[in-house]
Amino acid sequence: GIGIAITGSGSTVPPVVLDNQGLSQIVDTSDEWISTRTGIRQRRLAAPNESLRSIAAQAAQQALAMAKVSVTEVDLIILATSTPDDLFGTASQVQATLGATKAAAFDLTAACSGFVFGMVTAAQFIRTGTYQTVVVIGADILSRWVDWSDRRTCVLFGDGAGAIVMQASPVSDGLLGFELHNDGSQNGCLTLSYQPQPHPLGEIVTVGQGTFNPIAMNGQEVYRFAVKRVPEVIEKALFRANLTVEQVDWLLLHQANQRILDAVAQRLGISNEKVISNMANYGNTSAASIPIALDEVVRAGTIQPGDVIAASGFGAGLTWGATIFRW
Ligand code: ACO
């Protein structure tokens, strides 16, 4: 079969920093509460003149530069996001900003699991021989969709974008296994939903006009879900990869909460030195968190070529999934 190589990574976050101290002037919270419960110390927030399009394109440009791939070679762009600039999709705009004239492009929505779902989608196009070069981007600007008066949610999130380049490889295969799951019956645990407001059209018909409900979350349910399902899905993906937990060099989880990372690592029997964590600086950046964290350790030289990474995304839907890959 056709192998897959991950040949580049890139990431970007907005320049504006809001630390826990600053947040405590906006809602009734404290640095102590936020850092002990979540491990988050600060987050980056997009200014009104920034766009999902621009941060997504910046992350992709960096990944392409690392991969030494010309943008005109890109066959497909998958943009995992829940916060597009345009509900018709932002991937086309990213394609234009990049100048990726040959590429097909679409948005993919699977909340905080979006990047993992995107990697798996990209892999199918490559394995079939359809496409050779795919850019997978995870990008979100959740600051535009949270209720800034709700301390239970607004303290958790930050904005950013990350990307990788996945390419067909005749010599090796770097995507070793994956597993994806959904449980829509638990959808109410974490929502960013529409609330159609009745809007009569004359006397003929009444339609629903869209207004949105900001992010609402049952934190304890989400915590329990993550700590149970994430170890399971990683074990299943490792089984498909024909690998054991001992062969994992790095655990790369969606950066939702340090306590979730610690609990998952403990359940899997993976030591803390192997757990990649950067949420102290960025909070939960949703679909962007895995590629941002990956790009940081790649550029720091922490991850070496050939290392085995177990990545898992989990979140609204509910959705969860894992990919096992070699850098
Ligand atoms: N500052 C101060 N106090 C707060 C805050 C805050 N920001 N938020 C809640 N509290 C209060 C509550 O009001 C409550 O007070 P009360 O007992 O007087 O009512 C108390 O703190 C405890 O609240 P809980 O919700 O029980 O706190 P918990 O220990 O469960 O921690 C947390 C909340 C951090 C959200 C936890 O449930 C968690 O980590 N859940 C996972 C959430 C998550 O990671 N979601 C994202 C994953 S999916 C995705 O990425 C989209």
Automatic annotation (TrEMBL):
It catalyses: 3-methylbutanoyl-CoA + malonyl-[ACP] + H(+) = 5-methyl-3-oxohexanoyl-[ACP] + CO2 + CoA; (2S)-2-methylbutanoyl-CoA + malonyl-[ACP] + H(+) = (4S)-4-methyl-3-oxohexanoyl-[ACP] + CO2 + CoA; 2-methylpropanoyl-CoA + malonyl-[ACP] + H(+) = 4-methyl-3-oxopentanoyl-[ACP] + CO2 + CoA; malonyl-[ACP] + acetyl-CoA + H(+) = 3-oxobutanoyl-[ACP] + CO2 + CoA. One of its GO terms (cellular component) is cytoplasm. It is found in: Cytoplasm. One of its GO terms (biological process) is fatty acid biosynthetic process. Residues 239-327 form the Beta-ketoacyl-[acyl-carrier-protein] synthase III C-terminal domain. Keywords: Acyltransferase, Cytoplasm, Fatty acid biosynthesis, Fatty acid metabolism, Lipid biosynthesis, Lipid metabolism, Multifunctional enzyme, Transferase. The active site is at residues 112, 254, 284. GO terms for molecular function: 3-oxoacyl-[acyl-carrier-protein] synthase activity; beta-ketoacyl-acyl-carrier-protein synthase III activity. Residues 255-259 are annotated as: ACP-binding. Residues 106-184 form the Beta-ketoacyl-[acyl-carrier-protein] synthase III N-terminal domain. It holds the Pfam family ACP_syn_III. It comes from the Bacteria. InterPro entries: ACP_syn_III_C, ACP_syn_III_N, FabH, Thiolase-like. Signal peptide: none annotated. Its EC number is 2.3.1.180. Pathway: Lipid metabolism; fatty acid biosynthesis. Catalyzes the condensation reaction of fatty acid synthesis by the addition to an acyl acceptor of two carbons from malonyl-ACP. Catalyzes the first condensation reaction which initiates fatty acid synthesis and may therefore play a role in governing the total rate of fatty acid production. Possesses both acetoacetyl-ACP synthase and acetyl transacylase activities. Its substrate specificity determines the biosynthesis of branched-chain and/or straight-chain of fatty acids. Homodimer. Belongs to the thiolase-like superfamily. FabH family. HAMAP family: FabH (MF_01815). The last Arg residue of the ACP-binding site is essential for the weak association between ACP/AcpP and FabH. This is Beta-ketoacyl-[acyl-carrier-protein] synthase III.
